[in-house]
Design goal:
- This protein is α+β, with helices and mostly antiparallel strands.
- Helices cover about 40% and strands about 15% of the residues.
- The protein has 4 helices and 5 strands; from the N terminus they run αβββαββαα.
- It has a 5-stranded antiparallel β-sheet, sandwiched between helices.
- β1 and β2 form a beta hairpin.
- α2 crosses α4.
- The termini are far apart.
């Protein structure tokens, strides 16, 4: 049986560069430095499931407030627009992506179809040590904002 990377990260068994941005009883939010886009947040469930339809009542009640708080934190650091997505046809478990829209992404278009090429561009061309440090600094700013404002 293969190990689920999301389970390893959300449980704390595997450290991720930049660390957790925010954690609740049911969710773990972090930056994936494999795609070095400052402010990109992945909200992963702590329990292994793939679909929104599989969320239990406690997860449902917690999920939207977590996403709203993270979005407010993104806005506080100057992220104006965000693409949201998740897919159910994955071997992994529930990961909800919050991908900031930056000016440099305009070369790939302005729709959800532009997200994948932009992420690949970031992974392949924006992965210098300096750019990865910028990502981890942004994650630290998001983490500080999330801890500074409890609740809303």
């Amino acid at each position: 049986m293969s190990t689920c990377l999301s389970c390893e990260i959300s449980s704390g068994r595997r450290a991720i560069e930049g660390g957790a941005i925010y954690e609740t009883e049911h969710f773990h939010a972090h930056q994936d430095v494999a795609y070095p886009v400052p402010g990109l947040v992945i909200v992963a469930s702590k329990r292994h499931f793939r679909s929104l339809l599989e969320m239990n009542e406690a997860e449902v009640l917690e999920f939207v407030p977590v996403v709203q708080r993270l979005r407010r934190a993104q806005e506080q650091i100057g992220i104006q627009f965000v693409y949201y997505f998740y897919n159910e046809d994955t071997k992994h478990h529930f990961n909800f992506w919050m991908v900031p829209r930056y000016q440099w992404m305009a070369q790939f278009g302005k729709s959800i179809e532009a997200v994948r090429p932009a992420l690949l561009h970031a992974r392949n061309h924006m992965n210098s040590e300096e750019e990865v440090r910028a990502v981890t600094r942004t994650a630290a700013k998001l983490r500080a904002d999330m801890s500074a404002r409890p609740g809303r």
